[in-house]
Amino acid sequence: MLTKAAGHEAVPHRFYSSRYVGELSLLLPERRVARFSVLDMYGNRLDKDVPVADILPPFKGRSVAEVRRLAGATLMPLEVQPQGSAAGPPVQFYLSIRHGYLVQKE
């Protein structure tokens, strides 16, 4: 029973650990990419650079009420749709806007 419970804990931990964004950086103007910094299952930092054009706008076409609900959620999904030679299925990251803060405005 304990092994089964541990297995059920490991699956969501592994899924969210590589998708929960600890730091999101815009690397402008040199490169038009966003850097998603996540942790792997073992706590190692992984930086994933994504072209800004590949990020699907999370609030586009949504009402003010929907934007407030999404922004106030503990985890907000942010989808990235790879284009060109890296095209494939969308990748979903999770941001915590409610608990995050802006480090450098410019």
TrEMBL record:
<protein>
    <recommendedName>
        <fullName>Transmembrane protein 186</fullName>
    </recommendedName>
</protein>
<keyword id="KW-0472">Membrane</keyword>
<keyword id="KW-0496">Mitochondrion</keyword>
<keyword id="KW-0812">Transmembrane</keyword>
<dbReference type="InterPro" id="IPR026571">
    <property type="entry name" value="Tmem186"/>
</dbReference>
<keyword id="KW-0999">Mitochondrion inner membrane</keyword>
<comment type="similarity">
    <text>Belongs to the TMEM186 family.</text>
</comment>
<dbReference type="GO" id="GO:0005743">
    <property type="term" value="C:mitochondrial inner membrane"/>
</dbReference>
<keyword id="KW-1133">Transmembrane helix</keyword>
